[in-house]
Write a structure and sequence with these properties.
This protein is an alpha+beta fold. The chain is 40% helix and 29% strand. Strand 1 and strand 2 form a beta hairpin. The longest helix has 19 residues. The protein is globular. The termini are far apart.
């Protein structure tokens, strides 16, 4: 029991692990490549930025793009986007905030999660999308 209490105390007081600038830059580059591929209607390039577990759920670029269009339309062709804060959530995992404006001019907040693959590349494992505070559609 004492060992569990000491371990819990260490976890709670250690704070989040910080990703270095290079890792954050490579993770951001993966998101940027995907957004730019969406803008060009390049389904294969956008799909290539998805992590293997996402590609297992959506076994083709076409099914992946259909899912994005249905549930994440604001990321397909944003008028603009800006990277916000990033933090390492676990070893080899980063959560990256992105604020964006969709084609209609509405503001959104996206939280991308990424994982470093065995080859060192960062791939997108998920995206949570919410209307920006104060934005009504």
């Amino acid at each position: 029991m004492r060992h569990v209490a000491v371990l819990l105390l260490l976890v709670l007081t250690s704070g989040p692990v910080r990703a270095d600038d290079a890792a954050r830059g490579r993770a951001r580059a993966a998101i940027e490549r995907q957004i730019e591929a969406f803008r060009r209607n390049d389904a294969a390039a956008a799909y290539a930025e998805a992590a293997p577990q996402i590609r297992n759920l959506f076994p083709s670029a076409e099914t992946f793009i259909a899912m994005v269009a249905k549930g994440y339309a604001p990321v397909l062709r944003p008028r603009s986007y800006r990277f916000e804060t990033a933090r390492e959530t676990a070893e080899d995992e980063i959560a990256q905030g992105v604020s964006l404006q969709d084609e209609a001019g509405f503001d959104w907040m996206a939280l991308y999660t990424l994982q470093r693959q065995a080859n060192g590349e960062w791939r997108i494992t998920g995206c949570q999308l919410k209307k920006a505070p104060g934005e009504a559609i």
